[in-house]
Amino acid sequence: MRERTIASHFARAALGGARRRGYDYSELLQTLGISLELLNEPKARIAPEQFASLLQQLWQVLDDEYLGFGDGPSKRGTFAMMCHALIHCSNLEKALQRGLLFYSLFPQAPRLSLTREGDMTRLSLDDAALWDPDHFLSESLLVIWHRLGSWLIGQRIRLEQACFSYPKPEHGNEYDLLFPCPLVFSRDRSSLLFHSRYLSMPLLQDERTLKHFLERSPADLLARPDDGDSLSSQLRRLLSRDSNHWPDLESIAQHLHISPQTLRRHLREEGTSFQELKDQLRRDIAIYHLRRADLSLQQIAEQTGFSEPSAFHRAFKKWTGLTPGAYRAQET
């Protein structure tokens, strides 16, 4: 139930390279249960597993792990071979350097670099040569390298800052799913900043765990949100423990041993609110059940804390641009 849905923007953006290549993806979308109406609704959401399957299918049909956004294609299997090249390194720094060296052997590959800045390390991406109007490949590369590094050492690498070489895009409010840290836009290069202490950590993975990891990667790395350590993330976890009982802000504040005013202020600093987090969870629970047709609309309304189905209908349309009935019809 804690699965966070994916904004339709990312599915539309992922298909941009396929359109550029002249690939007709209508049959593919039909197979995945993603309707064009759903895809073209700006506020609509899709399930993480649908998004992961979409990426995997696009990699396969285009035979390009850059999905048509790079200066040149990256044949399927390149990412896996890079992972095999670094899996026996003794620590994270050597693994990342070997992975970046691997990609530097391909002249048309996007350039990434690792540099020290005092106690911090910056992973930078030169995205100037990319055809990437929606910044899909830039975002994906940063997310993949961050999450790959975290997987290698068996713990999440906490990001201190994420910088982007472009102004904040329209879908920038979705970045808390990808980069739960302070964001800076319109910089010379896109980059991630994290503490250098992670670099000396040993790799906890091996060939056996890598085989399982590669069965669904890197699609899974992009389809799941970053379960960060921000206050917003903590609240999502608390709220999702029991969706049949929706605690109020005062109860949450008491649980966290802070005042309601302090809780509101911290959430405001993170660019969100208690009501917004609660609505996101209700939206995602509703979509979960609408896709599976396991509950009636009345039952889903009750599950998401609405006493009246009409109030649920109005809220769901506000969240996604579609009524619950219309959304369910798109999924069947």
Automatic annotation (TrEMBL):
Keywords: DNA-binding, Transcription, Transcription regulation. Transmembrane segments: none annotated. GO terms for molecular function: DNA-binding transcription factor activity; transcription cis-regulatory region binding. The keyword Protease does not apply. The keyword NAD does not apply. Gene3D superfamilies: Homeodomain-like (1.10.10.60). This is Ornithine utilization regulator. It comes from the Bacteria. One of its GO terms (cellular component) is cytosol. It comes from Pseudomonas chlororaphis. Pfam families: Arabinose_bd, HTH_18. Residues 233-330 form the HTH araC/xylS-type domain. InterPro entries: AraC-type_N, Homeodomain-like_sf, HTH_AraC, Tscrpt_reg_AraC-type_HTH.
